[in-house]
Design goal:
about 20% helix, Structural Genomics Hypothetical 15.5 Kd Protein In mrcA-pckA Intergenic Region, Chain A, alpha+beta, about 325 residues, Pseudouridine synthase
Length: about 325
């Protein structure tokens, strides 16, 4: 038995075995072989080892077994040895804080990024200042005082837009409605702020109103208001008075309420009714381009006048044509 062990050790004399101290005289292997220990009898030639189907063969002990657990290689059945690292492809946990802030109406996504970068956001009591940070969807998010003051200073303006002005980006030969926001066109009410040029900074229309239409147009610096009025999940309705020419039967009126499609997409249900012999009242919860005019075309009507008189709970009221006023603190859409 001792002779057999010597032959095994002589196969690779240049490579020291694990657990053998090189140059230390008698090795631990030879000490074990010379002790009076029972030696297991060799297994019969036809005996099969007890190995589970699909299991990897036992790994030969190497110096790698002394590595820390975090860096030790792992053997897989039928595969080469691989180092198991962190799962880089795993989806990050939580939701971006900026997205949560916008969804909760704290501010717009753009403002949220700015406030986070400035360190003006607390999540579960911890200040956050790194963009892209994620949090649990149920986390408590609070704006610091500078961010709160910044939000409160954002202005929202109500304009009675005349015909001939475009609500959004200027078109060739036409004037954008925002040019009407001037000191001399302000409709002053008791306690209203005085116009300042800073009111124009970042002012943008929240929704469209066709160039041939008149009525209530909202312009705002507040991303929360814009999201509320024109966001994908907005539920704010808008009311219009529409003067028409042509004949409309009961079936056509039913189709105006529900059943029409524009650009191969079905329209959301609307509320449409006669106010008098040539005027209809429309209440919509969406704002496709020239939607009311195109709806009327589909049922044989021609629009000769269109005026928006309400957005949510805010009415045009007695605001003169071509003038504007600030949204009051006691008003909400």
């Amino acid at each position: 038995m001792v002779e057999r062990s010597r032959k095994t050790l002589s196969r690779s004399p240049a490579t020291p075995l694990a657990g053998v101290a090189v140059g230390s005289g008698r090795s631990a292997v030879s000490d074990r072989l010379t002790r009076d220990e029972p030696v297991a009898a060799p297994a019969p030639c036809n005996a099969r080892p007890s190995v589970k189907v699909g299991a990897a063969p036992p790994a030969r002990q190497t110096a790698a077994s002394s590595f820390p657990a975090a860096t030790a290689p792992t053997l897989r059945a039928g595969h080469a040895t691989e180092a198991v690292g962190p799962a880089s492809s795993a989806a990050p946990a939580g939701v971006r804080i900026a997205k949560l802030m916008a969804e909760r109406g704290l501010c717009s996504r753009r403002d949220a990024d700015e406030y986070i970068a400035r360190g003006w956001v607390f999540v579960d009591g911890r200040r956050v200042s790194e963009l892209g940070t994620r949090a649990d969807p149920a986390a408590v998010i609070v704006l610091d005082y500078p961010a709160q003051r910044n939000q409160q200073s954002r202005m929202t303006i109500l304009l009675h837009k005349p015909v001939g002005y475009v609500s959004g980006q200027p078109e060739p030969g036409f004037t954008p409605a925002v040019t009407l926001i001037q000191p001399n066109t302000q409709h002053r009410t008791p306690g209203a702020p005085v116009f300042h040029p800073s009111c124009l900074k970042g002012l943008a229309p929240a929704g469209r109103l066709d160039i041939d239409s008149t009525g209530l147009l909202v312009l705002t610096q507040d991303g929360r208001v814009a999201r509320q009025l024109v966001g994908e999940n907005s539920t704010i309705d808008k009311e219009y008075l529409v003067r028409v020419e042509g004949h409309l039967d009961a079936r056509g009126l039913a189709l105006l309420n529900h059943g029409l499609s524009l650009d191969d997409r079905k329209l959301k249900p609307a509320r449409v009714e006669w106010l008098n012999e040539d005027q209809l009242r429309f209440v919509l919860r969406e704002g496709r381009k020239r939607q009311i005019r195109r709806m009327c075309d589909l049922v044989g009507l021609r629009v000769i006048g269109l005026k928006r008189v309400r957005i949510g709970a805010v009415r045009l009221g007695d605001l003169p044509l071509g003038q504007w006023r600030f949204l009051r603190p006691d008003e909400a859409f």
